[in-house]
Amino acid sequence: MNRRFWRDVWTVLRKEWLEWLATPGCLIQPLAVILIFGVLAPVAAGRLWIDQPIIQWLWSWLPLALSAGMVADTFAGERERDTLEALLASRLPDRAIVLGKVAAVAAYGWIVTLACWVTGWAAVLVALDATLPNPSFVLAWLLLLSFLASCFIACLGVFISLRAQSVRQAQQLMSVAMLVSLLLLGLLATELVTTGTGEQTGQVLTVVALILIVLDFILLAGLLIRPQRSEWLIY
Description:
- By secondary structure, the chain is mainly α.
- It has helices spanning 3-21, 28-45, 47-51, 53-64, 66-81, 84-88, 94-128, 137-163, 167-195, 198-224.
- The model has no long low-confidence stretch (mean pLDDT 79).
């Protein structure tokens, strides 16, 4: 993978973002999510937001649900609009197309998540007139986990969109995947908040990070090792 390959990846990423920004009202949904999960929810949680960082990680998956609509459009949407043929007719290599679409969705989800965190901390500190706690092992892991979660949603979504017959089918499958993920995360967060110590929380988050790394690697490898360009246009 030389420098030209990464320029091609950037070209695809930029294309995805420009198409999204050209959509009317594209900023309304992320701004609404930031308001709800970056201001209202943290203020309602109060001290729990500061004392239990695992709750922040659980909430960090909620903005990623925004990626479900964007990720369904990566391949299934282009097939429905008959624009995928033009993309495949370009000089862009298969892997650059796939990786560019994954990177575009992952960056989108992670940026929205970080925006929710920044506004959440600001809202809680102002509402409670508190100060920032000292950096901890758990908070450092949360940044990594949010990035791995964004990559997981992006890889899974592109994998689904690549093989879905329509945008609706891709969105339905992504909705099911998000519901299952949030249910498992909710059970994990509840267990850690009620019974876990700080050391146990760090150990569990480490295990979760390793699981996400393995899942990201498997999904990305499945997308990049053997791209089936001949199957991309099949409805």
